[in-house]
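job 3f2a | input accepted
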Amino acid sequence: MAQDLRPRQVAQHALSGALLGALLAACGDAGPQQAPLAQEPRRVDTSRIADDALVNAVLDECHKPLRGGMDRVAAGVTLPDGSTVKLFARLPDALRVLDDEGQFLATGGVVLRLDGPGSPEAGVKRVVPATAAQQARVLALLTLLDAAALGPLYRANGCRRLAAGEFELTQPTGPAFRLRLRADSLLPASLTGPAGEVVFGDHLRTPVTWMAKSVTSKALGTCGIVFEKWDQDWAADFFAPPGAAATPEPERPRIPFVAAGGVEPRSATPFQTESRAIDWVMLDDPGTWPERAAVYTPVHEEIERQGLEVTGFPILFADGARKILAVPFRAGDTKVRLVPDPVWRIESRKPGRLLVVYPPAGDLAARCTAGEELLRAALANQKLVADGPICVQPWFQLHEGVPSAEKLASPTVRMFVPVR
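job 3f2a | predicted structure (420 res):
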């Protein structure tokens, strides 16, 4: 099984030459301090932000154009002794490490050395379990990288204020994390989880992001970090031990969303986003997935045949007593106008605000129920008024066939409601 360090989209980024750096030196036990920033962030009164809107506000402040891709990253970490480590991750639990000590794979809490000593007679190396020290170092790097990438915020499915600038972030599985913000700011000061505290020092300021530049943990000390790649499409076997079954990447959409704010996060906490103008073909929902695929497919194909763009997965909602299956589309060239079938009903949607959530667990029915509850609670908490029905948008490529039982049992589901 191929185990090179090349993501499918960036094969040219393969490393060459000598392995980088030296072994990690033992770090002191001094408590981390909040370092001054090279450029101060804008002042924000976080007491005026509702708990269920806080996570989205932080992610927008720090990562807005990168949201949706920070769980698949490549990064370089400079350790306290000046040595460097290359990290390739599918967060939160899969990591490839390349440094002077060798190549390591962490997956599901197990750490393997991929270039361990082999048979002297054969002159080959083999996969071996990492030593206790190597395992501790690799898992500490994974914890550090996940925090620096704000992974616990992306995965949060609940937020509760503990004190001024401090919040508890519940996770889909496992213990909650504690987020502490810099005073009068949306920049993280620290994230504390089951593996300990990671403290944020300096940030790299770009015109549209605040990226962690130095982070400190008790296990590693103060480290510099540079995110070199994000939104990577890793090969299926990249995080699988040699000889083991490949683990395909989680499903990612092949139909683009029309979102004014760029890549949309799959957040389990409701968040607001801007939508562009879009048109929907409105079909009567026949009620079963085979029937839905049968009525949806010719519409999808005809839209594309006429040179227009289907801009999202099928949408289900109730229009009074009528159940609707909608096909969202827009012209790729504004001069192109759809010539609809006479039986189609088309509605044009103006730009506006949406409240969006991705329910994190359960089958399709369970996610729909949970998503509706989350959206209704967020409408009340954020004092928003719904400006249309709650819509369900499962990530199903209906023009490719009926969703499988496995997909229906654990789908990605986007739910949204227009707001004003």
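job 3f2a | The helical segments are 51-63, 132-148, 151-155, 289-305, 364-381, 405-409.
job 3f2a | closed
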